[in-house]
């Protein structure tokens, strides 16, 4: 029994730590602009400006005027905590 517990503990510690990935979203629409660092897609009246990196995988020819589906994830660039307002009354 001790061997099994030790083996399970060793296996758990050997697993690489994996970070939780943010939810993936996608938008399909007309490509308005393509550059090395940006893809702009229009869906209806809404424009989506999506950052593009060297890791972005592109299948087919991505060019202005074409229809494309882009998968993206939201990433925070800054976060500022605000007071909740409770107990912080001014007299």
Automatic annotation (TrEMBL):
Residues 1-19 form the signal peptide. Keywords: Signal. This is DUF5666 domain-containing protein. It comes from Anaeromyxobacter diazotrophicus.
């Amino acid at each position: 029994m001790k061997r099994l517990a030790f083996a399970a503990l060793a296996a758990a510690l050997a697993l690489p730590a994996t970070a939780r990935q943010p939810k993936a979203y996608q938008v399909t629409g007309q490509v308005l602009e393509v550059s090395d660092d940006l893809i702009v897609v229009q869906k209806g009246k809404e424009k989506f400006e999506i950052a593009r990196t060297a890791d972005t995988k592109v299948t087919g020819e991505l060019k202005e005027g074409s229809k494309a589906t882009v998968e993206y994830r939201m990433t925070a660039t800054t976060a500022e905590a605000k007071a909740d307002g409770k107990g912080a009354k001014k007299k």
